[in-house]
């Protein structure tokens, strides 16, 4: 079983952006351009989009005249074509290399294509259990993705440690009944069971 800070778990469940890799340069570049084009408050958008599916963000901020499906596809194509500036979170490569493939999963709000492109851009492995935005009816902060990952790994969710960096992701992990390790600085440390800035 995987260990973290002297605690054993049935499995580790990782968010992707901000947790395995830092894509904030790309995310801000593309979403700020979208905000300017549609008269959306850029600061409100940036404070709310992390950890959330693109379609859910667009649905929240788009005016009634915008086609959510069309705007979502436009954002996806822009993100698929832009990997400049994406970097791995320090120490994540060796951290994952120590894990058995049956001991970890990725649960991301990104699409499968986008998540695959970003993981490959930073030379991280594609997990055996890979839950993406298309796999769930409701995105984070709903717990569906984490519950599905635990089910596919064949482990109880309350024996899983979730690594998350966003308020929506932390809320989803808690609602699922998992323990939470907060990565980075977007969520107060006391919101989780552990806090870390990197994996070394």
Description:
With 200 residues, this protein is of the alpha/beta class. The chain has two domains: 131 residues, HAD superfamily/HAD-like (Rossmann fold, 3-Layer(aba) Sandwich); 57 residues. The chain is built from eight helices and ten strands. Strand 6, helix 6 and strand 7 form a beta-alpha-beta unit. The longest helix has 15 residues.
Shape: globular
Helix count equals: 8
Instruction: Tell me the name of the CATH class of the largest domain.
Output: Alpha Beta
| Second CATH tier, the architecture of the largest domain | 3-Layer(aba) Sandwich
Q: CA-to-CA gap between the ends?
A: 20 Å
The count of domains is: 2
Brief digest:
The protein is an alpha/beta fold and about 200 residues long.
List keywords for this structure.
200 residues, two-stranded antiparallel ribbon, Rossmann fold, 40% helix, alpha/beta
């Amino acid at each position: 079983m995987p260990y973290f800070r002297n605690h054993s778990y049935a499995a580790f469940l990782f968010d992707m952006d901000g947790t395995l890799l830092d894509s904030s340069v790309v995310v801000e570049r593309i979403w700020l351009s979208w905000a300017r084009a549609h008269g959306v408050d850029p600061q409100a958008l940036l404070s709310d989009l992390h950890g959330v599916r693109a379609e859910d963000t667009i649905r929240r901020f788009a005016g009634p005249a915008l086609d959510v499906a069309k705007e979502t596809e436009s954002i996806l194509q822009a993100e698929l074509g832009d990997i400049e500036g994406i970097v791995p979170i320090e120490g994540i490569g060796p951290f994952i290399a120590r894990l058995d493939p049956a001991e970890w999963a990725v649960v991301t709000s990104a699409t499968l294509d986008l998540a695959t492109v970003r993981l490959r851009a930073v030379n991280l492995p594609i997990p055996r259990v890979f839950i993406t935005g298309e796999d769930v009816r409701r995105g984070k902060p709903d717990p569906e993705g984490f519950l599905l990952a635990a089910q596919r790994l064949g482990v109880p969710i309350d024996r899983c440690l979730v690594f998350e960096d966003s308020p929506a992701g932390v809320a989803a992990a808690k609602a699922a009944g998992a323990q939470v390790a907060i990565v980075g600085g977007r969520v107060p440390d006391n919101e989780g069971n552990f806090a870390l800035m990197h994996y070394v």
